[in-house]
Amino acid sequence: MQKKIGVIWGDCSSVEIVEQAVNVLKTIEKKYSHSFEYIDIAMGGQAIDLYGDPLPSHELDKCLSCDSVLLGAIGGPKWEGLPGEKRPEKGLLRLRAGMGLYSNNRPAKIWPQLADASPLKKEIVDKGIDFIIVRELIGGVYFGNHETHEENGELKAIDSMPYSEHEIRRIGKIGFETAMKRNKKLCMVDKANVLDTSRLWRKVMDELKKEYPEVEYSVMFVDNCAMQICKNPSQFDVIVTENMFGDILSDEASEITGSIGMIPSSSLGDGTRGLYEPIHGSAPDIAGKDIVNPIACILSAAMMLQYSFDLKEEAKDIEKAVNAVLNQGYRTQDMMSENMKLVGCKQMGQLIVNEI
Amino acid sequence: MQKKIGVIWGDCSSVEIVEQAVNVLKTIEKKYSHSFEYIDIAMGGQAIDLYGDPLPSHELDKCLSCDSVLLGAIGGPKWEGLPGEKRPEKGLLRLRAGMGLYSNNRPAKIWPQLADASPLKKEIVDKGIDFIIVRELIGGVYFGNHETHEENGELKAIDSMPYSEHEIRRIGKIGFETAMKRNKKLCMVDKANVLDTSRLWRKVMDELKKEYPEVEYSVMFVDNCAMQICKNPSQFDVIVTENMFGDILSDEASEITGSIGMIPSSSLGDGTRGLYEPIHGSAPDIAGKDIVNPIACILSAAMMLQYSFDLKEEAKDIEKAVNAVLNQGYRTQDMMSENMKLVGCKQMGQLIVNEI
Ligand SMILES: CC(C)[C@H](C(=O)O)[C@@H](O)C(=O)O
Ligand SMILES: CC(C)[C@H](C(=O)O)[C@@H](O)C(=O)O
């Protein structure tokens, strides 16, 4: 199979993990006789340094000419003082919108080898943590109007949070379809006692649910959900929610698995072209030290093979290799525990390559 | 001391807890020779049933004529289908705004007797959980414009999230003042990489912090904060944040203490008149069964004595009584564990009254 893969090297320690993920992809390429072309793309801090813009249109165009895009993570203290439009994060938001990636899938799953790293009690973890948050990614307050103006002699800022029916319907469908492939439970999270957008979500979801009679559908307020994720995470199968709530809840959900350095994510739109990236950030504090965990990025590459290129066997191969290396007791610093073997980013990548 | 106390009996199981809290207040009244007048106020579902409006202006006026107001909790399935303006919650929001209560204080604190009930691991709990979330209560998306209209043949909803400098400054001050009375650490939580309102919060807080050089001030993104509350809650002393983030984070924070049935809250404005209520909801599923935990409501009454009436000794007296009853092993169902003595709502209230 011939594919063009966009590679966003990202900022700070991101470069180190992307390097390992690309090594893994190259290994898969050889083993299965595929031919992947890697296109370097600058986005975030790197693009600001190069072009004074976190996502110049020529870089977005490159992404759109690829079959899929792999990303590490962006941002860092160097770019923190910049105004809204010039921040690294703005590049990511524009990339999501420019590629039409409305559906962000964030699995929250315990790796048995790392179960001890969860901040939750064993009795809660033992009931199982294995759910997916389907987050709407290019609507809501992230993409509404933002403005700051003077009023009565002081500044006033207003962010607006818009949602229209078709935006809700397309992500709602992904929620139901995801549930159908899993345990057929879908929970929609909102704040319908306060927000008009949430009430519109309820209306559209109520219409959609008729098309999925097998799915056990429920609704939950976001404040309650933030509690339930700590209290009783085993109740969840698939959660679908709007952009901002999805941001907050998926971070909480990844934390309770105790393995945030292990969690990949996919962002997809209507076609098969996607953006694949770890859940974690660019970890500026440990950049250049060869201690960052490359596994979330490597698993993101695996997700790309599976969901964008339909290369299921290849994806499984990577996951098995990761599993094997963990079983052999190798750990990066972030997941280190007693009696395990501490390795750096490069060595972890190499171990996984060797397994493949 | 003579005081007029507004009493909102609330909906579902709320009535049962308010009854116990009023009994406790009456006991304090006698013991310390105060004279409290209790004014019944209808708000929420009860007001909808009586007047077709969750907070008629005559009921708000009654609140404004009182020295302070005690509330249980409102809402329930009976009123769920109603349109936005007619919901029980709207009464609460209008009450907060009408009384000018911009500062909501929500303590997250482990009760040593209930430490086992936390969903977090013992090693995390043992480091200590004792922080306060200061939530802005009458601004942001709760009080912005909400609208739904037709556009391009479909419905579109927009919620707007406004903040102006004076709204941020007054709550920011409360944040710093609260930190000064505690361990002098203040963390402001926002989403400044996305929201204009958050960037305005940063500007105002940066100005304010100069007036509090002793306070160690930091900022954190809301998604990261949702993780940190699970991972390392002992890092927090005081968190200050906008309305919606405060809603989500304070629920998560109360959950990790494992004692949500024990957590009171205060809402204050510029004067001493406040609204005091438990963090938990109206628990419709257990209404009328005499099993709801009245302690959060009783402790809310204690907070009222302390913060609105400056009756510190009386407040301490109530807290001590609660502590003693817990030490004697009495528990309501929600906090029941092995070898403890199960009691109902009424008996729990009576035990606390007896202690006083
Ligand atoms: C970097 C930031 C804008 C982004 C978001 O909030 O979407 C990040 O937190 C994420 O979740 O991918
Ligand atoms: C009932 C609801 C509107 C309210 C809120 O979101 O403020 C509640 O969740 C709370 O936190 O007091």
Summarize the structure.
Chains A, B: Its EC number is 1.1.1.85. The structure is a homodimer of 356-residue chains. Chain A is built from 12 helices and 14 strands.
Question: What distinguishing features does this structure have?
Answer:
10-stranded mixed sheet, alpha/beta, two-stranded antiparallel sheet, 356 residues, homodimer, 14 strands, Isopropylmalate Dehydrogenase, 12 helices, binds 3-isopropylmalic acid
Query: What would the CATH topology of the largest domain in chain A be?
Result: Isopropylmalate Dehydrogenase
**SSE ordering of chain A:** EHEHHEHEHEEEHEHEHEHEEHHEEH
- Report the oligomer: homodimer
CATH class of the largest domain in chain A, please? Alpha Beta
Please report the two chains with the greatest interface, counting residues with C-beta closer than 8 angstroms to the partner's C-beta: A-B, 61 and 61 residues
Helix/strand structural class of chain A: alpha/beta
What spatial form of chain A do the alpha-carbon principal axes imply? globular
State the strand order across the main sheet of chain A. 2-1-3-12-11-4-5-10-8-9
Instruction: Tell me the number of strands of chain A.
Output: 14
Task: Give the names of the bound compounds.
Answer: 3-isopropylmalic acid
Largest sheet of chain A: 10 strands, mixed
Number of helices of chain A: 12
Q: Which architecture of the largest domain in chain A does the CATH hierarchy give at level 2?
A: 3-Layer(aba) Sandwich
pLDDT < 50 runs, ≥5 residues of chain A: none
Strand content of chain A: 15-25%
Provide the gyration radius of chain A in Å.
Answer: 20 Å
Number of individual domains of chain A:
2
Q: What's the CATH superfamily of the largest domain in chain A, by name? A: Isopropylmalate Dehydrogenase
Organism (chains A, B): Floccifex porci
Subunit structure (chains A, B): Homodimer.
Keywords (chains A, B): Amino-acid biosynthesis, Branched-chain amino acid biosynthesis, Cytoplasm, Leucine biosynthesis, Magnesium, Manganese, Metal-binding, NAD, Oxidoreductase
GO molecular function (chains A, B): 3-isopropylmalate dehydrogenase activity; magnesium ion binding; NAD binding
